[in-house]
Amino acid sequence: MYAMTRADSPVPHFFLHYNVNPPDVWSYHVDLPGKVDGVMYPDYWEQALAPLSEITQKKTYKAIPQRRIQADRKQYLSTWGFYGKEIDQPEYELIRDKVVPFYLKHFFDLVDNFSYTTVSRDYLVERGRKQMDMLLKREMDLSGWGRLESLFGREAGDQLRYECRREHHQL
């Protein structure tokens, strides 16, 4: 599940995927990718994402390793995200039962209450365009897009990527 917020909104997107590859291999990714540069605007990250520290800094979760994420994708994700590939069932269930509901509640709170006016609408749209173009490139996840396209065809993958980016390119 990917909840993409409006192109001109400072509310982070919500990324969630988890899957089971029988008989005993699980993976997950939970994150709220920030829409404003964290180096130039650290107050944005503090306001939008620091509340996630309540769960990410608990001792239980510190033991969960951050698995490798491609370097070209990492710059668009938050440092509060959880990512695990080929993990065991207890870790998968911990994330599913404790972390996902926490992140989802925080996302809905942001949708209802968050504003950030330090950057302009044009800044958000331009950065968002670059972010979406990068994250949705076929090369970013060849195996993921390959599985989708093996089921529905390459045209369907191209159309899905186009639809996900359309708002950014029409503004």
Q: What helical percentage do the residues reach?
A: 40-55%
Oligomer description: single chain
Overall average pLDDT: 83
Shape: flat
What is the number of E strands?
Answer: 4
Strand fraction equals 5-15%
Rounded radius of gyration (Å): 16 Å
CATH architecture of the domain at 2-118: 3-Layer(aba) Sandwich
What top-tier CATH class of the domain at 2-118 fits best?
Alpha Beta
Strand numbers in spatial order across the main sheet: 1-2-3-4
Would you kindly provide a written description of the structure presented here, covering whatever features stand out?
The protein has 171 residues and is α+β, with helices and mostly antiparallel strands. The chain has a domain of 117 residues: oxygen-dependent coproporphyrinogen oxidase (3-Layer(aba) Sandwich), CATH 3.40.1500.20. It has 8 helices and 4 strands, in the order E-E-E-H-H-H-H-E-H-H-H-H. The longest helix has 25 residues. The two termini are 24 Å apart. The mean pLDDT is 83.
Q: What characteristics describe this protein?
A:
171 residues, alpha+beta, oxygen-dependent coproporphyrinogen oxidase, 51% helix
